[in-house]
Design brief:
- The protein contains one helix and no strands.
- By secondary structure, the protein is mostly helical.
- The protein is rod-shaped, with a radius of gyration of 20 Å.
- The N and C termini lie far apart (68 Å).
């Protein structure tokens, strides 16, 4: 029973880490999009 609980905990931790990773990738996507928008706006101003 204890090993089953440990396995469930490990699976939960892995799932949380995977979720956080995809969340981080989304944030990186947003930041890179904003950076490209800023670059575009800088070119428009100059």
């Amino acid at each position: 029973m204890i090993t089953l609980k440990n396995e469930i905990r490990e699976e939960a931790v892995i799932a949380i880490l995977e979720y956080r990773k995809t969340e981080a990738y989304q944030i990186v996507d947003i930041v890179s999009y904003l950076a490209s928008e800023v670059t575009y706006l800088e070119q428009e101003i100059i």
